[in-house]
Recover the amino acids of this structure.
């Protein structure tokens, strides 16, 4: 996929655990891990909003685009 | 994941499952009786002809001398030949094996059909209905129906050929059905096409479900 989710980096910057984030955002840990490993096919705006709110960042800090070779 | 909530759905699934399980035993019984017949040389007594085509000449239905001789000849060979709209069977002490060979593919098809349907119902009970495995199972069901329709048609043709040869004395008399009666339109052919379409629809459903599951 050309879209890379940099949730790990952002979590490390904010020194937050995955479990904590999952609790704040209101998604299961399994779904968060799907998001982190890049298996996810789509992300709801509401989820993105909640993550940005919890980590106090912009969507661009989490999502990155690199063209496929 | 969607859970089955209503008790009605649960009852329907259980009933369908048990009906399938019971009907699954039927082809196995049929196979057993065929084998029994071969082993103990049980003979069919009757000699019956049902015309595959109800056509315009009454002559076909009356037995003239030639035809009586033909039937007598059949009796001499201890052969029972029956031709009807859908099947063709030759039974005698040797011919029984041929009948079994004709019936075995049908039985295998029915067993595949019933088993696949049973697996589908069981997956519905477990709430994992939209999977690629089920698409495969639907495709198998369609293939079984297609094979049954082709088998039906071919054996029908063979039966008509033998009827024409032994009774009318004209083996290559053209008796292809005109109209829908007894034609391929009456067989499982269209059921097979329908199941293939359903399998394709199911595949799209599986894709949608996967995307839905992977949307966070």
């Amino acid at each position: 996929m050309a879209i890379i989710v940099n949730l790990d980096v952002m979590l490390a910057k904010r020194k937050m655990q995955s479990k904590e984030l999952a609790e704040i955002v209101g998604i299961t840990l399994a779904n968060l891990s799907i998001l982190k490993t890049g298996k996810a096919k789509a992300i709801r705006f509401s989820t993105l909003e909640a993550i940005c709110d919890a980590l106090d960042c912009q969507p661009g800090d989490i999502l990155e685009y690199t063209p496929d070779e | 994941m969607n859970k089955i909530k209503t008790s009605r759905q649960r009852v329907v699934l259980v009933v369908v499952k048990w009906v399938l399980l019971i009907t699954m035993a039927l082809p196995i019984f049929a196979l057993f009786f065929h084998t029994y017949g071969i082993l103990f040389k049980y003979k069919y007594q009757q000699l019956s002809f049902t015309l595959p085509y109800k056509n315009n000449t009454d002559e076909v239905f009356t037995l003239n001398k030639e035809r009586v001789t033909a039937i007598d000849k059949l009796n001499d060979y201890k052969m029972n030949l029956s031709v009807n709209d859908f099947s063709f069977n030759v039974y005698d002490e040797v011919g029984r094996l041929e009948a079994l060979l004709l019936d075995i593919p049908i039985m295998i098809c029915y067993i595949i059909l019933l088993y696949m349907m049973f697996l589908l119902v069981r997956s519905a009970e477990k709430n994992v209905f939209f999977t690629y495995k089920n698409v495969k199972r639907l495709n198998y069901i369609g293939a079984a129906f297609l094979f049954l329709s082709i088998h039906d048609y071919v054996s029908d043709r063979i039966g008509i050929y033998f009827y024409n040869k032994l009774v009318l004395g004209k083996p290559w008399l053209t008796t292809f059905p005109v109209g829908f009666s007894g034609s391929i339109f009456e067989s499982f052919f269209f059921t097979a096409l329908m199941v293939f379409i359903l399998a394709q629809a199911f595949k799209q459903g599986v894709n949608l479900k996967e995307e839905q599951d992977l949307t966070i």
Chain B has one domain: 7-213. The beta strands of chain B are 80-83, 88-91. Residues 3 and 48 of chain B are 55 Å apart (CA to CA). Helices of chain B lie at 7-40, 65-76, 95-125, 132-168, 189-213.
